Amino acid sequence: MRGCRFALVLAILAAAGCGSRGGDPAPPAPLASVPAAEHGKLGTDQVGVLSPVAAFEGGGADWRIEIRADGGLRHGVRLQRGATGDPGSARYRPAAGTAAPGEHRLEGTLYTASGDRAMRIELQRGECRDAAAHTWPWRVRVEVDGLPSLHGCGELAQ
Q1: N or C: which end of the chain has fewer CB within 10 A?
Q2: Residue 131: other Cβ atoms inside 10 A
């Protein structure tokens, strides 16, 4: 019986120390107060959406581009121009009902030695012949602010 009383006293003391300290906890921040696109966050319409551009490799005379999906709508990009290779990042931009089937657009940033530059990549399904007369299933156009537009051919992996 004495052991039961001791156990009961320990239980009461333990329960007394379980209360909150310093008052009630702060309420969580309302989700509606944080803009969906702020700080690289996905909007609710993009949750669970995967880019149709899993991987792409292509290029033209004196340049190459590699695009790899990082998950969701984000991509890692590597643009090789002559002896210069620069990394970048881009997001797939689904067009709201305006893009034709077989067209994809990515927008992002190319990180060059002279500074970050805005970049746009357009992929279009359709026969494309390179300078060596090889036939490719996709055409690619790359525009980087301050640089000449690049046009070439490539292949999309899905």
Answers
A1: N
A2: 9
- Higher-confidence residue of 96 and 128: namely 128
pTM beyond 0.70, yes or no: no
Q: Is residue 68 a contact partner of residue 55, using CB atoms and an 8 Å limit?
A: yes
Domain spans of the chain, in order of start: 49-157
- Long-range (24+ apart) CB contacts under 8 A made by 18-21 are none
Cα angle, residue 154 at apex, residues 149 and 158 outer, rounded to 5°: 125
pLDDT digits (tens, 9 = 90+) for 85-102: 999 999 999 766 655 678
User: CB of 131 within 8 A of CB of 61?
Assistant: yes
The CA-based diameter of the chain, rounded to the nearest angstrom, is 96
Give me the chain's average pLDDT, please: 79
| Identity of the amino acid at 126 | G
Among the listed residues 149, 51, 125, the one whose alpha carbon sits nearest the alpha carbon of residue 91: 51
More confident residue, 51 or 13: 51
Please give the angle made by the CA atoms of 37, 68 and 70, to the nearest 5 degrees: 45
